[in-house]
């Protein structure tokens, strides 16, 4: 429901003038959010490569939330959830498409074509002004509101200025910095934002935030400092890249010097803004939040994709690693949705503490309003809940959190699905992924298996049933767009291809493809499938498989023809029964030549639905 400012003021019953009185001064709010920053990308969250002294100092002043989640593994949906307190499934913004020219305000399924196995959602492309937002409520309560940096929720008439912000800089709706991080930039001429050669956008952005703080130091303010870093294009200051190039360790999964340099510029900007709070004497009356919109990019797109031409040689490894969490941006696994989170609430948070409360980006709106004593309009019902009491050391009572991502993403290997986390248990429902069009289910115990390597769905049917019911209820309550099997899908085209194995070679086994399923039958004691890798390690092989007998297997890797590389293997155990996903790590570094998938030595058929190979380079996926 939409309210204009006058109606909001009446509902809130807060005299705007009271916010300026000498007797009563509400706390300021500084909300800092990085873009595509992984859960382990800061020194205070475990990185031994990235240098983040300013954010480390911020964490030392307040509390780190170690189980903080984005509501979506991509940026625009999470941003909308912060501003509205609503799940992306409810608003329909489920993909980062809000920079596209087409205005889509109603959620729906895509139409697809005969080559599309599953019909996925078509995301809404603008944050509708029907929603009451956090800055609107704060504005009515007497706050000066400013948005600085990335928006990505729609251009005029859906910009920050239509969603409660008094100031918006640079008033740009694109997905990242225009052209590059280092000037000359490519912003639209109307913005008059050209920059001096060598000027970094994060330096300029943070200076704009500093200006806003100085201008409003004598009144309550809410500043969104939403950084462009560390989203692509991967670009940084020359001297910082050179610095991290020298310290890169090939055995450290985080070793990309360009990304590390981007993180340092991000941290420099934070330091500049925090220093302004001290300079103005208002640090003790300013709530500071640091967060990220989704997980880090742990898969590589190859040296030519979204990389600065100056740093092609430095982009041979993925931008970052989210280990021990699985996968990264655009994934429902933990690496895609776990975020670094710091909260400093002067006089409340205890310095240098940790908090394991499970929180989600939908909670920021009710929480921040609770922290500054501003009530929500009675008719506004966010999906999020306030965790202000948890910040104080109390307990947050909630049943579960959900992530709805109804899209296929080739880069991360993610199929459309919804996840739920309740306590230690996490269930992922992947829509229409079984051969009969039914949903595939994956169950993980995050207390015992933080890397989500053991799918316990077949072993814990009662827990699966309970959590799956929660997902069903969530989808109905939010009127979510639910992907379905395409009734016009024609899989026969795949089996008619000249190479039905799509590059895989068989040894010690027979293989055939029918109805998009690869069936492998062993003929000796060491049956395997082999394929040219074409990527750098460390990597992982994931495949969906079904076997009536099961047994041991392994993934083996060999160096390229020039011999410069490593040989090794990782064993796995395939349990008998219904379809399951198996994830096997390749611990080698450097170039991989051949990857072999050894299956149980049995003459009973083993069925494979798909295989994925992900490492440093373009991920590969085979759907037979």
Q: Give the CATH superfamily of the largest domain.
A: Alkaline Phosphatase, subunit A
Please state the structural category: alpha+beta
Specify the biggest β-sheet: 9 strands, mixed
Number of helices: 13
Count of strand segments: 28
**Amino- and carboxy-terminal Cα gap:** 47 Å
Under the CATH scheme, which class of the largest domain?
Alpha Beta
Radius of gyration using CA atoms only: 25 Å
Task: Provide the low-confidence segments as ranges.
Answer: 13-23, 301-305, 493-497
Q: What is the molecular shape?
A: globular
SSE topology:
Blueprint (H helix, E strand, L loop, with lengths): L4 H8 L15 E7 L18 H9 L1 E7 L5 H10 L3 H4 L16 E2 L8 E2 L1 E2 L11 H7 L3 E6 L17 E3 L31 H15 L5 E6 L11 H10 L9 H23 L6 E7 L41 H4 E7 L8 E3 L3 E2 L3 H9 L15 H4 L9 E5 L11 E6 L2 E6 L9 E6 L15 H17 L6 E2 L6 H4 L9 E3 L1 E6 L2 E6 L5 E5 L3 E12 L3 E8 L9 E7 L2 E15 L2 E5 L7 E11 L3 E4 L1
Parallel strand pairs: 1-8, 1-9, 2-11, 2-12, 6-7, 6-8
Antiparallel strand pairs: 2-10, 3-5, 4-17, 9-10, 13-14, 14-15, 15-16, 18-21, 19-20, 20-27, 21-26, 22-25, 22-27, 23-24, 23-26, 27-28
Helix pairs in contact: 1-5, 6-8, 7-8
Describe the fold and architecture.
It is a single chain. The chain has 2 domains: 5-86 and 131-397, 3-Layer(aba) Sandwich (Alkaline Phosphatase, subunit A); 492-623, Galactose-binding lectin (Jelly Rolls), CATH 2.60.120. Strand 27 and strand 28 (620-623) form a beta hairpin. Strands 1, 2, 6, 7, 8, 9, 10, 11 and 12 form a 9-stranded mixed β-sheet that branches. Strands 19, 20, 22, 25, 27 and 28 form a 6-stranded antiparallel β-sheet that branches. It is 20% helix and 26% strand. Residues 13-23, 301-305 and 493-497 have low confidence and may be disordered. The chain has 13 helices and 28 strands. It is an alpha+beta fold and 624 residues long. It is globular and about 80 Å long.
